[in-house]
Amino acid sequence: MKRVLKVFTLSLLLTMAIIPIFANGSQEMKNSSAKKQLTLSIWDENQKATIQEIVDSFNAQSTEYEATIQLTPWSTYWTKLDASAGAGDAADVFWMNVYLPKYVDGDVLLPLDEYITKNDIDINNYVQTTLDMYNYKNHIWAMPKGMDTVVVAYNKALFDKYDVAYPQKGWSWDDMKTISMELRDKIKKAGDTNYPILMELDAQPSYFNFIYQNGGYVVSDDYSKSGFNQPEVAKSFQNVVDLFNEKLLAPYNVLSETKGTDLFISKKGAMVFIGSWKASVLENCSIAQEGNLGLVTMPSQDVDNTSVIGGLGYAISKNTKYPDGSFALVKYLTGFEGNKIQGEKGIDIPAYRDAQKYYKEHFKNIDAQAFFDAADTSVPFPAGPDINAWIGIINDNAARILAQEISPEKGCELIYKDMQAAIDK
Amino acid sequence: MTKQKLTEAKSAYLFLLPLIVGLGYFYFYAFIQNFYFSFTDLSSFGKPSLVGLENYKKLLTDEKFYLAFKNTLIYVLIGVPSVLIFSTLSAEFLNQNIKGNTFFRTALFIPAVTMPAAIGILWRWLYNYQFGIINVLLNRVGIESIAWLSNTNLVKGSISIVLVWSMSAIYTIIILSGLQGIPKSYYEAAEIDGANKFQIFFKVTLPLLTPTLFFVAVMTTIGIFQIFDLIFLMIQPTALSLRYSMSMVYYFYDRAFVAFDKGYASAISIILFLMILLITVVQLKLQKKWVYEE
Fold it and tell me: Which of A142, A290, B1, B218 is most exposed, with the fewest beta carbons within 10 Å of its own?
């Protein structure tokens, strides 16, 4: 009996010693101040330090509330959010993106309309497209934080080497092809292995833009119709396939194994279609530091040079204990001050127009003006409540089209069939 | 039972308690819960509602599921014999008393103690079409670059090479201990009868090794059916070759955590479970046919 008691006590003590490891410190931490606690959930560790600055500033000026940041890496962010939101236990404020409709339909977000009016927020201060992104079923569900656009980056040193004229703002797809053919021929003559054009084969920095540039759409504005039965969409894919076949774009094998951006900053290509979210990568690469990095808006196709705009917003949990406090935090984060700090640190292009100039000033080696220009002709990233059901269908078949396993017409046909079926369900 | 035995039994159970509680909740309960979910429409929020065999019916017409299934079968069919052969040869090699034995043992064992993430990322760069060392060396001897990971016909083979290399490490050790368990008297008898090295290997060593080989075959089959991390690490999600390399577990991950269709994903995992169960039972039944019993 004595021995059993010893063993039992020892096991109990050991178990008790391990329990604190599982305690969620950030939620139950006793605070010396009497301020109400708010949690802010984000996923990007690159932006954390700057967001912390804004949060510290908020905490200093708030007599009632104190906010802490919870960082969850991207790979687990949505799983965690889903689980906690489903349990009514999500962070008070959290980053939200194009997945918004799913969360609205899941009834886990606080509608912000009344808070916007109550707090006298002038929504005209924000880039219109960013507001549209968080407007769903006639309510506003998040305040815009930043925006991403897609542009073309080019290596001036390579252009100089082969004596080809730089791309100019307002250029067309045909201009791009002419420049690229000249590059291709001169590269070959010099016996080098560079590529005229590079691309990342993900939807946002490539074909989603091209679809709109040719007058098509990915999904209708009311999210009920797939756009892939339009001939314009098949044409936009054909244009890319032509680039492969004319050897103006690096081969599919190369691009599907190594990211276009990495190839570009390793000086393997003259031009790359790239998103503004890579701004700091560009700022710090050797091409930029040598003063050879140029940025220009995308070339126009049949209609124009539309860029798809992605971006993040701050949403509030429906079950937050402090809706007014949470909105106060959101108001601060997305207000002029918050955006100014964001811009100065160059972490995200402010959605608040008057603060955008600070973003531009942050960059010493690149001219960020092209990112703003791209917003002039832009559409929100196509999303809707069924995006999780159809984005995979598009990605899979786009890969087959770009690898030329199937024709653009066939691929779009397949996408349309499955995507419309997914929406209709 | 005597009083002392009773006391000892009680302490034994107490020591086992933490493990059993953990296993019970994180394995057995989780398994049953997953099985339940496969009959529901569990997604991101809300209470899942029962949908009967809906998910399983959907699987029957799901092209991607068949692709994943086919790919996984091919990995097993290539991988299991390859691991068996490679491990046995390595073990036989290590069993000889040659110079540098310890070095070879360590070198062959390294994959077993390396994180799969490290192995995946390393080989991803070795295989890279434009910059990988393998192609660079091939070019030096006048051979054109090979698209190891983006050629849709080669990608499964390329991944299998890494898979077999990394899995064999631990099984080499197991087979080695199996080899060392063979009484020397058999070898002596064979030598006296005038058998050469090959005859000894095939007529003496292998038959006596079959119990160990059986164990390796079963474990390898179960392991390769669940292949995921190498594919996840080595292939970009937007690459076409993913279609020709994704496994059932990868498709499960895709449905559960990218498409948030968790009920459907559970159904996929149950099918995989049944598949592995069936094959293992078949292997056990075949045991009598080829495993040598002493």
Answer: B1
